[in-house]
Inverse folding.
């Protein structure tokens, strides 16, 4: 019966493996008693020539005799030996072999020596490989683990044992789940299975690896894995290297957070939006709960006082806490900080605060006790506070908490939070200053444009105003409805060159000038002539600032005066688009009115035109931003305007909406949009029974006759109680016309909310008030008129002048 041969597993690159090495057996006297086929192949001697010979005689060169004898002595002393020996080949050349010698004791107690030899260069390389392998498992700082196909551990090195705090030899048979939390185990084992199944190695895959013994400690590792196979291709398992890259991961994450903060914070010039962006960037990547609280004046664009910091208003909050309204103050809540609170100290000292391990709710002194207790009970365990300071001004406070993430804040986290706060604070301060300037600009704009259009018997009006910069809200276009004497009304639309605050300021000056000129009762062409002079002077006043060219001053304007008694409208335009007129029957036309030069050219005349406007006519005045908004030909846009105005039976507000929709529907996407002002008026007519006119003779009895006519008319209107005052006014005005004017003299009464008295003559002499001395016999007439009336004035016509007065009727609305 054959004796079974025990086979040992040999590595494919082991130089001392049976199939690679020469095997020789020597007896106690050094004679060769065993010679392998591999020895014959490597040394050239067949077994017949080698067996029975002394090894020293034919295998060793005489010059190496001493070296061999020293090796033999060491082998005997140490019961074995390993080293490199020179050996003589059959062909006479000298060959170095790595040799391993071990004593063998026979049954008769005699000794033989078993030698295994391989070419020296193969042995040296093998020793290097063995040293590398030993280093990987015993000295390498990078973790190394070998897993069986079922992913159980076969072997780990000391670095892995340092992670798990379990001796290396005790890892065999364990699994990753015995050391890592389940979530991270699934990630690691999923990667190893993929390598096992596909054979594709994974390289430097970063993933979390939180340990069961310390799940609150953040740990990130870089893993590379490759499949193990034997020489036949059979899968033996998988090996992975594990490197702790937590610090690198955190640094990269913080850098990414800072880059994200730079991109996401400050996208608008809105204080509240910037505060929300700060909170959204900080949570959940840096903190679980974030709040941004700003000093009350900051929210309104004002500069906060620094001597005594006032209350804070919550501007933004981000939290995953359940029932967060019961824990975190909501947005908009005013927070009064106790002087001894951590938050108050942080603001007062302008220094950040880091409390990595909260021990009690006392840290939340700015909260009420119940909220503090609830927050602590829900797991809030780490806190950072950073004051928001920009340009030396304290603007508010950034607070960050951790509740769900178990690891506490660190100093590096605080530095990231400070960087967040620094960037955000500059943006908040810019937004605050913008808000301040924006509010000032809006205040200016709103003060320059009419707030409400009061009802007027001459016209019913509706309007639209759309500045080019909708966010800034300021433009150079304007419109106005100005009541004039005799129930007439001035309709004005103008357009200043440019946009923004400079155009708005110029617009305000022109609008004020138009009001002044309108109340002088000048004709439309005269008004534009005076405006032209004003714009010319404004242009001369411009001075360059900061090396920039002076602001260009120029404007266009359309000025119209409608008289509801005569149903006539006088118009003049200075380089402005013509109005559109809609008849009561719905017919739309654009009247041919002399264009006139734009305001500011100087020295060129303006012409006025008159249009009859029957009751119910529409008059549409607009700026060129309306007809040039769609980058089309102005004539086409004007045709669209006429089409939009042609639909009958609509309110004026609806008409404005239709015009806006027809001509401005693409305005939001138009980067070159201009300011737009639109004013639509529907004309009215005074009832004939409310207007009476008489022509008086130019004689001394004219005043007496006028008093009689006045008394009779007031009685017919049921205004007898106003008889004495009105007769006195009429008497003074007619007497002045008789004395200083020229004939004929016209007396007219208009009844509306006021009783209007007008006395006209053909003289252009301007009456004026003066203080009469006690010895003077006259000079008190106009003084009496001014005291008895609500308003009075003079207007000039081509044929003379009219002096008018207004008295409020007792039943008129105040």
């Amino acid at each position: 019966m054959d004796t079974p041969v025990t086979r040992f597993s040999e590595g494919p690159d082991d130089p001392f493996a049976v199939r690679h090495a020469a095997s020789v057996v020597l007896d106690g006297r050094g004679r060769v008693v065993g010679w392998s086929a591999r020895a014959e192949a490597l040394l050239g001697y067949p077994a017949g020539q080698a067996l029975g010979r002394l090894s020293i005689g034919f295998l060793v060169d005489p010059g190496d005799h001493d070296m061999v004898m020293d090796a033999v002595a060491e082998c005997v002393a140490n019961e074995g030996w390993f080293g490199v020996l020179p050996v003589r080949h059959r062909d006479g050349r000298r060959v170095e072999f790595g040799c391993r010698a071990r004593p063998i004791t026979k049954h008769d107690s005699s000794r033989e020596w078993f030698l295994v030899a391989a070419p020296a260069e193969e042995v040296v390389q093998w020793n290097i490989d063995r040293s590398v392998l030993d280093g990987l498992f015993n000295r390498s700082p990078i973790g190394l683990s070998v897993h069986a196909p079922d992913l159980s551990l076969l072997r780990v090195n000391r670095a892995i044992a340092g992670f798990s705090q379990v001796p290396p030899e005790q890892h065999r048979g364990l699994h990753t789940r015995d050391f890592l939390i389940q979530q991270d185990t699934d990630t690691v084992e999923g990667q190893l299975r993929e390598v096992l199944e596909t054979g594709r190695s994974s390289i430097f895959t970063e993933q979390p690896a939180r340990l069961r013994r310390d799940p609150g400690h953040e740990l990130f590792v870089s893993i590379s894995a490759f499949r193990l196979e034997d020489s036949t291709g059979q899968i033996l398992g998988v090996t992975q290297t594990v490197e702790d890259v937590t610090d690198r991961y955190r640094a990269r994450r913080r850098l990414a957070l800072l880059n994200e903060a730079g991109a996401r914070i400050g996208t608008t010039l809105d204080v509240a939006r910037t505060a929300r962006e700060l909170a959204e960037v900080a949570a959940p990547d840096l903190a679980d709960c974030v709040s941004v609280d700003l000093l009350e004046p900051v929210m309104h664009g004002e500069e906060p006082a620094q001597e005594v910091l006032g209350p804070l208003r919550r501007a933004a909050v981000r939290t995953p806490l359940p029932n967060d309204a019961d824990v975190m103050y909501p947005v908009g809540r005013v927070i009064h900080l106790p002087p001894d609170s951590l938050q108050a100290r942080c603001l007062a000292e302008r220094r950040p605060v880091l409390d990595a391990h909260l021990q009690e709710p006392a840290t939340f002194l700015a909260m009420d006790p119940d909220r503090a207790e609830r927050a602590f009970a829900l797991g809030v365990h780490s806190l950072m506070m950073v004051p928001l300071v920009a340009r030396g001004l304290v603007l508010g406070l950034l607070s960050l908490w951790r509740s769900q993430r178990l690891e506490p804040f660190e100093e590096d986290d605080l530095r990231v939070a400070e960087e967040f706060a620094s960037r955000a604070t500059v943006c908040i301060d810019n937004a605050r200053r913008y808000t301040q300037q924006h509010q000032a600009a809006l205040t200016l704009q709103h003060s320059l444009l009419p707030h409400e259009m009061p009802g007027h018997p001459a016209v019913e009006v509706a309007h639209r105003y759309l500045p080019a910069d909708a966010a800034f809200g300021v433009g150079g276009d304007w419109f106005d409805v100005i009541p004039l004497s005799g129930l007439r009304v001035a309709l004005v639309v103008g357009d200043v060159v440019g946009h923004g605050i400079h155009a708005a300021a110029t617009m305000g000056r022109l609008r004020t000038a138009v009001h002044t000129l309108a109340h002088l009762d000048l004709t439309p062409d005269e008004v534009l002539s005076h405006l032209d002079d004003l714009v010319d002077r404004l242009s001369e006043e411009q001075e360059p600032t900061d090396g920039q060219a002076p602001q260009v001053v120029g404007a266009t304007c359309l000025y119209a005066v409608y008289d509801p008694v005569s149903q006539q409208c006088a118009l003049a335009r200075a380089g402005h688009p013509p109005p559109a007129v809609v008849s009561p029957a719905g017919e739309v036309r654009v009247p041919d009115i002399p264009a006139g030069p734009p305001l500011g050219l100087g020295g060129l005349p303006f012409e006025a035109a008159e249009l009859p406007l029957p009751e119910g006519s529409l008059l549409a005045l607009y700026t060129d931003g309306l007809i040039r908004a769609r980058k089309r030909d102005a004539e086409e846009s004007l045709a669209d305007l006429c089409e939009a105005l042609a639909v009958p039976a609509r309110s004026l507000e609806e008409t404005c909406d239709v015009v806006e929709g027809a001509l401005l529907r693409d305005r939001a996407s138009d980067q070159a949009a201009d300011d737009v002002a639109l004013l639509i008026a529907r004309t009215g007519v005074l009832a004939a029974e409310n207007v009476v006119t008489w022509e008086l003779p130019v004689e001394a009895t004219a005043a007496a006759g006028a008093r009689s006519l006045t008394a009779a008319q007031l009685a017919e209107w049921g205004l007898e109680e106003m008889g004495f005052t009105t007769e006195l006014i009429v008497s003074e005005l007619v007497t002045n016309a008789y004395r200083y004017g020229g004939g004929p003299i016209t007396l007219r009464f208009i009844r509306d909310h006021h009783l209007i008295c007008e006395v006209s003559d053909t003289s252009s002499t301007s009456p004026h008030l003066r203080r009469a001395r006690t010895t003077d016999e006259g000079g008190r007439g106009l003084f009496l008129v001014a005291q008895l009336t609500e308003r009075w004035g003079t207007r000039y016509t081509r044929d003379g002048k009219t002096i008018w007065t207004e008295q409020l009727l007792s039943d008129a609305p105040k």
About this structure: Residues 411-448 form the longest helix (38 residues).
